[in-house]
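Deviation from plan, reported transparently: IPE complex.
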Amino acid sequence: MHVAIIMDGNGRWATRRGLPRVAGHRAGVGTVRRVVERASDLGIGQMTLYAFSSDNWNRPAQEVESIFRLMRAYLRLETERLRQRGVRLQIIGRRDRLPKLLLREIERAEFLTADGECLHLRIAVDYSSREAITRTISTVSQRLLQEPQSSVDSLQNFLNSALSSESEDVDLLIRTGGEKRLSDFLLWESAYAELFFTDRMWPDFDAADLDAAVADFKRRERRFGGSTTNAAHSIAPSAGLSP
Ligand code: IPE
Ligand code: IPE
Ligand code: MG
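Because the crystal trials were delayed, the predicted structure below was used instead.
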């Protein structure tokens, strides 16, 4: 099961308490710890957390720097515990614009947790789903120039595998903080994700809230375009873009 979370509401959580926004981000790191621990207890195989979007560069430099500093501290303090729990940590998104010190901490954490087999934890930093798709399409078009006879089917397979090498399809997508939008997160991978929105601000989200979201997910009937979960008698044509 792949659970993806848009961790939203840190700023409002802080502002409502008369605190600076960074206090919300700091409290949000505590939630990441709790939720990751709970996810591995629940046997969730893959979790992707949206920590910093490419559009978040539009925030004041001071806030951006504080977020990166908190990420560095999280990685430095948590890596050993993650490793002991069998968590494999991976950072997705662009790396070329991140501060050097953060990048070094990321590489260290990924290296030390590389053998983890219980939970594949991905944290999206400087991430834009449109950018990831565009980058893949650019690779596909280069291939098309080299192999102009490629069929539409083989290109679609290539596009699929190039994008899913970064991710499996999302089963459950949670967004905290009350907004009901995707904000450029895992657009391709969430084609059939079940969506769960909660008004809870991210710093207040806890293990019981994750349990509730997963329980809600389990009650849903996923049809993937079929009319029932039993597709034994379907006469579906083979997959592909061509008619
Ligand atoms: C999410 O919380 C964390 C990041 C985007 C880095 P916000 O900072 O967006 O909090 P709100 O939405 O302003 O409350
Ligand atoms: C999405 O939250 C990004 C993260 C949670 C990291 P934002 O707060 O940036 O999204 P918008 O601006 O409300 O769409
Ligand atoms: Mg927000």
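Residues 2-219 form a domain with the Undecaprenyl pyrophosphate synthetase fold (CATH 3.40.1180.10). We consider this an acceptable substitute for the interim report.
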